[in-house]
């Protein structure tokens, strides 16, 4: 997949897994976190996102709050 320029990135939402807690987190802050992660990983100006189960909320937040960065979403 690397040869095709495809990278699968998964992250822990604030307070889950090995990430630091952030009691004031919101869906908008999660979209901001995803945008910052994409920038740090140099994924480009637009990227695809996939949300499954609890990940559908941050995915929807990205579609709502940073639509200019989303190439497509599932």
Structure description:
The two termini are 19 Å apart. The protein contains two helices and two strands. It has a two-stranded parallel sheet. It is 32% helix and 9% strand. It is an alpha+beta fold and 74 residues long. The radius of gyration is 12 Å and the shape is globular.
Mean pLDDT: 90
Count of alpha/pi helices: 2
The main pleated sheet reads as: 2 strands, parallel
User: What is the H/E order?
Assistant: HEHE
**Beta-strand share of residues:** 5-15%
Tell me the structural class: alpha+beta
Helix content: 25-40%
Q: Characterize the overall form.
A: globular
Strand segment count? 2
Q: Ends: how far apart?
A: 19 Å
What spatial order of strands do you see in the largest sheet? Answer: 1-2
Question: Which parts are unreliable, with pLDDT below 50 for 5 consecutive residues or more?
Answer: none
From the alpha-carbon coordinates, what is the Rg to the nearest angstrom?
12 Å
């Amino acid at each position: 997949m690397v040869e095709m320029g495809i990278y699968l990135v998964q992250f822990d939402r604030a307070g889950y897994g090995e990430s630091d807690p952030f009691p004031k987190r919101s869906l908008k802050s999660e979209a901001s976190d995803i945008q910052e992660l994409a920038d740090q990983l140099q994924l480009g100006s637009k990227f695809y996102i996939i949300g499954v189960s609890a990940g559908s909320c941050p995915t929807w937040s990205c579609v709502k709050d940073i639509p200019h960065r989303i190439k497509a979403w599932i």
